[in-house]
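Sequence in, structure out. First:
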Amino acid sequence: MYTSIVEMVASTGLILRVAACAADEGYTGDPDLWARQHMWQVVSAADWVAAWDSARANSSLNWNPDTGARDDVITDGMILSVVQPMIATEPAE
């Protein structure tokens, strides 16, 4: 489980997808920096380990070595459900 969490936090594809979500949700600062600073919280707030582990154990047509870039593993909806409330509580810059 912890290895999967570390892999998610380090996944460039997942970080960029979280940043895109933050920007789309109206974060006015640097969304890339926000995502990098909040990845541990984002990953810990969600129950993504089972999806991540399943994808790592099984290949699919959407295979990509950066599992975090795969929207069939961690969906945009999964990201949105964690990032949206976090952005809502961020102080304005």
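Second:
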Amino acid sequence: MIPDEYRKFTEEQVHSRILEVKAKFGKRLVMLGHHYQRDEVVQLSDFRGDSYGLCKKAAEQKEAEFIVFCGVHFMAEAADIISDPNQIVHIPDLTAGCPLADFADLTSVLHAWADINSICGINSITPITYINSSAEIKAFCGQHNGTVCTSSNAPAAFEWALNRSEKLIFFPDQHLGTNTGNKTGISSEERIVWDPHQPLGGNSPNQIEQAKLILWKGHCHVHTWFNLDHVRKARNKYPGVKIVVHPECLEEVVDASNDNGSTSFIINYVENAQPKTTIAVGTELNLVHRVARENSDKKIFPLARSMCPNMYKINLYNLCWTLDNLGKINIVQVPESVKKDALLALNKMLQLK
């Protein structure tokens, strides 16, 4: 809860205070703004990008004493893991979480890992976690010679893993895992979904033994909102429309689209399209509106309205309050016992192309 005094300020006053703090600290302060943030927050950020891009930027900011991550909690955790010991990472609202990341908790993952190893044998499987996961799950992957991936380099991570072991398990988004499996030639017969609430994930020992790809049952509610009806309506209303979606979408939506890829991929897709092209974009609403404004020579519109409420928790007011209290409030600090192993997995991610 921000103090009442901040609620009395106008947006213009808060904006000015933020600029004053940025000017005062200079390179000692860096602000990172995810693409899904409100426009007024992104405009004040030193760097904007997706999870992968901002993770790299955080690692590069050696002069910064304070890193303020305008995103969700797992992103700030990742920044803290890869930052130097003298750097302090903040997030303007500590409750800005990620429901997708919450699908994979460490206790459930450990139970699944024990079950799979008892059936398939030790060293038969490599764990990969999407960056949208907790520090504990990243550390688990680091402990077991796995890696973190993003939607950008998930295919490279899958290929890397299958060059090391017979099979892989992917946390926590089954849809990104399914679509990445399709990109890397893993058939539907070679994959299973692991439901942590069911014995053996809802599978038989034989199914587990035969599977090349084990997908953790989890999803992003922002991207699973899109469906085939949205695709049909867009194509009926705008003949010749191009449809590009995020690979966290349902398999049938990805298959019915013209292309799919990470947030950065989508932005490049729109920017590189010919003038007057009509493009429906299946991802978070704030990003779609922004790329539409920045590419006014094309007709860009959301495939459907879908917004991330956790990203929306960051605003000028809690950002200003955080900047006025650097080093004191809204600090994200991953325990050293977790950080060490998580860093192993994140470093592998940064090496993957």
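Remark: The chain has three domains: 4-96+311-339, 101-221, 228-302.
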